[in-house]
Amino acid sequence: MRKVLFTFLLIITLFTQMKADNIFLKEFKTTNGAIPFDRITTNDYEPAIMQAIKEHEAEVLAIANQQEAPTFENTILALEYSGETLNRVLGVFYPMLSANADDSLIAVSTRISPIISAHSNFVSLNEQLWNRVNTVYKNFDESKYSHEDKRLLDKTYKNFVRSGAALEGAAREEYKKLTIQLTELTLKFEQNCLKDKARYEMWLKKEDLAGLPETAVEAAAAEAAQKGRAGEYLITLYFPSYSPFMKYSSRRDLREKLYKMYNTQCTSGEFSNIEVIKQIANTRLAIANLMGFKTFADYQLDNTMAKDVKHVYAMLDQLKKAYSPVERADMKRLEKFASKLEGKPMKIMPWDYSYYSNKEKDANYSIDDELLRPYFELNNVIDGVFGLATKLYGLQFTENYDAQVFYPDVRVFDVTDREGKYVGMLYTDFFPRATKQSGAWMTNFREQYLDKDGKDVRPLVTLTMNFTKPTDSKPSLLSFYEVETFTHEFGHALHSLLSKCKYVSLSGTNVYRDFVELPSQFNENFMTESEFLDSFAKHYITGEKIPQDLVQKVIASSQYGAAYACMRQLGFGYLDLAWYTIDKPFEGDPFKFEAEATKDVNMFAPVEGCLMSPQFGHIFSGGYAAGYYSYKWAEVLDADAFSKFKEEGIFNPKTASEFQELLSKGSTEDPMELYVKFRGREPKIDALLKRDGIKK
Q1: What are the Cα distances from residue 175, in Å, to 134, 168, 419?
Q2: Nearest-CA neighbor of 186 among 309, 280, 87?
Q3: Nearest 5 degrees, angle CA 601-CA 606-CA 607?
Q4: For the chain, what is the mean pLDDT?
Q5: pLDDT of residue 19
Q6: Which of 383, 522, 631, 654 is 20 to 30 A (C-alpha) from 488?
């Protein structure tokens, strides 16, 4: 008995010690709150999350069960400032799950995801808490509070309603079940995508490399060498490998093979998402129905700038009408070009477009990505992109070599303003790896807000990309598209870094989904401005500035393929809406469904076995469900906004200051009101059509 008691006490002591030593359970004692990655292990996350949930639930119960009458201070503000420990650990956990997830971290995610969903329901479905929030909302005296306080109250109230708080009885229990189910499904979708992409490999010999530039050949050799197969060449489905091959390889058979590999991801076998996407769409439909909406799109769009499905379709259809005739003409011209080039009639297939359009673009403008790469060495690009923020907003970026990082490639920069005041910290993670999701994104380890004492807590921002890696003989030389991607994601980072808000719920990028892409897409406009390109683009060997004739060719060629690019994005938007405007559970064939959804904007006939939906992470696991249209919505905004800079000077201090004001407000004001305040009117489509050469 004494032995059993001793063992029990030892376990309790060890568990208590483990909790006490867990890095996440107290505020990070680091400069500016930088993440102490050198002290974080995978084993820290799960116990920290469990303890943090326990703490947060105690806070929530204390708010819900208090005897005092509900007020803005004791209910809304108390909620806003609750969950500090949970925010700290999840602020690191989720970015790592996307950027550096090995099997053990994925296993943690699998275990804790339903627990986090259940905790979310614990908060939002607490009847006493909901009654207090509802009481404050109904009796709020706006004259006693600031506009930002009112925005916080409105957002808190709507979040409760949209999270099922107004549901009763069986409907409430059904909502709990559905949200946990959805969390598990989206996690499964993500994991299948990650694992399936990693297993696709196309091994080549030297004679298979016809047409590939030296940079792509070296990268393929390096990939093979990492697998222990020196002397061979490996092409993968990761963008820096896939994209150059599709653009430059003269081997049509291999382009077709690689295209089909890419577009059959997660369609069969162990990592198939075919049934998963059906279940996700049906689960979201069930949630929307519980909330009183006919479709998930109706439910989702109720809290956006667009407001409803009708307005989204109106925008998509307007763009389709404008761009479709141009795209059809462009494709006919491209087929004639390809036929002349090959000396025989050619029908352009999906695996041909990148190759022949690049050839035609080069023929018309004598410009090619490989001509540009030597002028886009990564370190120079960093200087140029950061320099854009310096010139517009006075920000300075100083590399911090002491800050801890989660992977050796990661770099950290301290950001300060014109007066040298600390603005935030920026982590950059540029290169692909097996534990990292594909694509590019910005997120936060910590967002900006004022704490209870009024101290301005500044953001810790991370930029994640998958750029071309350096090789033994060359540094990382970026394509024009990769530089554009950098400027895009950096726009999101600036939205967070420039935030000046009181509440974290309203700060930085916590805005409507169809407004969040404005700052990022706005930045892309500078890519066709010689004043910007000339500021950093120089040859990585000679140091020679990019020749002006090359800059002018970049600018002249910027409209090439604009119609195709638009129609491709419209296809994604229509597909997204198709999945989320279903009004009864989907049990059909996803292949037929996808073909029907995109038939009016798809320039190619469906390829047997190929399917986008099972790998379309944006709409099935990435937060863009019934929201992919927002890229085009924001493109209308960004073109219209940049037209003001074109009118007044692209680096005009007054214009830049006015746009910075828009960026600093987060969601403290209605986005349309913010935009009108900046532009002087509501946005028009004309600037986009003119920029793309659709309208002269």
Answers
A1: 19, 10, 50
A2: 280
A3: 145
A4: 94
A5: 57
A6: 654
pTM to 2 decimals?
A: 0.84
The kind and range of the H/E element at 364 are helix 353-365
Q: Are 443 and 464 in contact (CB under 8 A)?
A: yes
Rounded (10°) CA dihedral 296, 299, 300, 306: 120
Provide the 3-class DSSP secondary structure of residue 413: strand
**Does residue 187 sit in helix, strand or coil?**
helix
424 strand-pairing partners:
415
The enclosing H or E element of 461 equals strand 460-464
What separation, in Å, do the N-terminal and C-terminal C-alpha atoms of the chain show?
A: 90
Residue 6 in this model has a pLDDT that exceeds 60: no
Cβ 100 vs Cβ 435: under 8 Å? yes
pLDDT grade for 16, boundaries at 50, 70 and 90: very low
Based on the residue annotation, tell me whether 489 is a catalytic residue of this protein.
yes
The catalytic position among 360, 489, 524, 635 is: 489
Closest CA to 354 of 215, 477, 255, 216: 255
For residues 516-520, give the mean pLDDT: 94
Three-class DSSP category at 519? helix
Please write the tens of the pLDDT for every residue from 521-539. Answer: 999 999 999 999 999 999 9
Residue 458 DSSP class:
P
d(CA 288, CA 271): 28
Phi and psi torsions of 353, nearest 5°: -60, -50
